[in-house]
Amino acid sequence: MEALLSLAFDNIAAKDTQKIRKGLRQIEGMLAQICLSGAKSKPATKPATPAHRRNQSAINLGEQQQSTPKKLGPLGEDPAFREFFRLQEGFEWNVATRVADCLNRLLGMTSSKDGHNDLLILSSLSNLQGLLLLHPPSRIIFGREVYMNVLLDLLDPYNCPAIQSAAVLVLVTALLATPPNTRMFEHMDGLLTVTSLFKDEETTQGVKVKLLEFLYFYLMPEAPVSSVSTPTTAIHHPRSPLDRRSSMASGDDNGGTTKKNIRPQEEKQHMLARYLNNVEALVEDLKESAPFTGVAC
After folding, report:
1. Is the separation of the CB atoms in 166 and 125 below 8 Å?
2. Angle, vertex CA 125, rays to CA 273 and CA 179, nearest 5
3. pLDDT digit string (tens) for 220-230?
4. How far apart are alpha carbons 248 and 260 in whole angstroms?
């Protein structure tokens, strides 16, 4: 896995967009192998001839395309996932950081007329969302201004609706159960960025729906979470550099829970009201519908 990651890192760090595309596809393929279960082929009833082998290969390829996602529980016992999670605990092999850096470079490149650069940005965002879900401690990188600024830049009106929508999804994943990141989002005028795009007449309806969902998510009550992040698959592992950095950012280095950086719902409501009218109605609707039941913010 280290060899594959090393090759992918070299590719996404290149200036050649074809190499960047290749590197992003390599990362996507690795994540697909971790998260998808290949369909088991049926045993042959009789030995295959060379011609049959070629035909059988086509059948097997079709079966692989019909792979189904693995369940979260068994995923924790998967050797590939455990190895991936172990490698993510160190900065050298942390994929989320490399993809975020790649995304930052793509934003600095001149957009091509054929939209190829936009496709690379979308691929980076898709990979980044999956990485943050598979390895929650990696979310701590968005407690830094440089990485939070990348996500907010993607919410500028000049970006296409597909990029805006994908950026909102990654932003939700980056803030999920990580209050220090939410404080950085607020510090970087994230509320102004989101509400400005929401009120812009040229923003598409689909993007506005995503932004409204984000505001519901933002207004949810926050709860202290353990500074020692573990995956949802309940893998036990020692504290990593990412864990320790998360602890220092949240003001707790004892491996327990902390209430520092937690902001009351009423205070967040007041902050959002600076940029958006009728926030009280959003809060009431949130209480009645409870769209994110069981989600820690």
Report:
1. yes
2. 45
3. 988 765 543 44
4. 11
3-state secondary structure of 252: coil
Give the contacts of 46 (CB within 8 A, at least 6 positions apart): none
d(CA 35, CA 292): 24
Q: From CA 238, how far away is CA 227, in angstroms rounded?
A: 12
CA-to-CA distance for 61 and 146, rounded, in angstroms? 42
The two structure tokens encoding residue 234: 């309940």
Residue type present at position 218: Y
- Whole-number average pLDDT of the chain: 81
Its CATH class, for the domain covering 88-289, is mainly alpha
Asked whether 191 and 272 are in contact (CB, 8 A), the reply is yes
The pTM of the full predicted model, rounded to 2 decimals, is: 0.79
Q: What are phi and psi of 224, to 5 degrees?
A: -65, 140
pLDDT in tens, 40-69: 434 444 444 444 443 443 334 344 445 677
Q: What is the CA radius of gyration of the chain?
A: 21
- Record the tokens describing residue 19, joined without a space: 């190499």
Q: What is the DSSP letter of 13?
A: T
Give the tens place of pLDDT for each residue, 82-103: 899 999 988 899 999 999 999 9
> Which distant-in-sequence residues (6+ apart) come within 8 Å of 219 by Cβ?
265, 268, 269, 272, 279, 282, 283, 286
CA pair distance 86, 83, nearest whole angstrom: 5
For residues 42 and 71, what is the distance between their CA atoms, to the nearest angstrom?
Answer: 23
Is residue 140 within 8 Å of 242, Cβ to Cβ? yes
